[in-house]
Design goal:
Helix content: 25-40%
Number of strands: 11
Number of helices: 8
Radius of gyration: 20 Å
DNA sequence: TATATTGTTACACC
DNA sequence: TGGTGTAACAATAT
């Protein structure tokens, strides 16, 4: 379940591995995963065979200029004014293997007794081959993610990209900006606020729970009830929790693995997410799990007010 | 077999 | 018009 830190981890490792490499071959096993142009999701899902041809011809032979990120979107910049956008959604993976590692079995799920596999697996939907014999695999068990090719001049028309809020780890995301966004949404529950990508980009269910624990604020509080101190703690929490998770290479909950096939270690320091029924590490009170707005939230009833 | 899962969009309502 | 809340959607493992 990749959120900002996981996607950032993928982007950094991928950048180091595939920059300046040439795509020599592209294979698409599941047509609906790929698309061309700044389309909406509903248009992407049409399984268009012409789309697949255009995707393959538009990417084959191109050289990778850079790999960057906006919110949870991976942007693979190609020389010649186009880019491949990859959204991993719930269970997407981008796994890079050098020529020497292609036959090495990988444990692709963070489940103790899962069998190692050699790629492509049954969940591999797209493969990019590079000129040095290395390969990039797009795997996706739930098939919620997508890979789309856009011209650089279309990038601002991609709906999900143009609507994203500020990047929380950039220096231009200041406390003044944060407080003003809060101010515009007085009635929203803080959990929902943190999860909304149009307000702040890149925060999902794991890190919103962890940020709220750090800030000592319950997920059900509305924005207008938050004190000055709590707003400041939330701001600090967003920066701190996300940047520490990036340092540790993400959380590796569920299906997230790094392009190298290794796992991030932030999951080991989760304080509330996935710990429902376990004692709080600060006060020993049992972590509570509630569901609202269709999402599960875990929090400590004593530490979080 | 019913359910849980999550990022994002669609839509109804005020 | 735009903030807000809710439902829907993708597909599969358990």
């Amino acid at each position: 379940m990749p959120e900002l830190p996981e996607v950032e981890t993928v982007v950094r490792e991928l950048r180091a591995k595939i920059r300046n490499k040439k795509i020599t071959k592209v294979k698409v096993f599941l047509p609906k995963i790929v698309s061309v142009g700044p389309k909406t999701l509903s248009n992407i899902r049409k399984n268009n065979p012409v789309m697949v041809k255009r995707f393959i011809s538009g990417t084959t032979g191109k050289i990778i200029k850079n790999v960057t990120r906006r919110a949870k979107m991976i942007i693979i910049d190609l020389k010649g004014d186009s880019a491949i956008l990859v959204h991993l959604k719930m269970t997407g993976q981008l796994i890079y293997l050098s020529k020497n590692n292609l036959q090495k079995p990988l444990r692709l799920l963070n489940i103790p007794n899962i069998k190692p596999v050699i790629l492509p697996s049954k969940w591999t939907h797209v493969i990019f081959d590079f000129s040095d014999g290395s390969k990039l695999f797009y795997n996706d068990m739930r098939q919620f993610g997508y890979v789309k090719l856009v011209e650089d001049n279309q990038i601002t028309q991609v709906p999900e990209l143009k609507d994203y809020g500020p990047e929380p780890l950039l220096t231009n995301f200041t406390i003044v900006k944060f407080v003003s966004i809060l101010h515009n949404r007085p009635k929203m529950k803080i959990k929902q606020f943190l999860l909304n990508p149009n307000l702040i980009a890149g925060i999902g269910n794991i890190y919103s729970d962890e940020i709220l624990f750090y800030s000592k604020v319950r997920p059900t509080r509305t924005v207008q009830t938050l004190s000055r101190t709590e707003r400041a703690r939330l701001y600090k929490g967003i920066k701190k929790i996300l940047s520490e998770a990036v340092k540790k290479g993400g959380s590796s909950v569920g299906d997230f693995v790094r392009p190298s096939g290794k796992w991030g270690s932030y999951g080991k320091v989760h304080k509330v997410y996935g710990l429902s029924g376990k004692p709080c590490q600060i006060c020993g009170t049992l972590i509570k799990s509630i569901k609202f707005n269709g999402r599960t939230s875990s929090y400590c009833p004593k530490c979080q007010k």
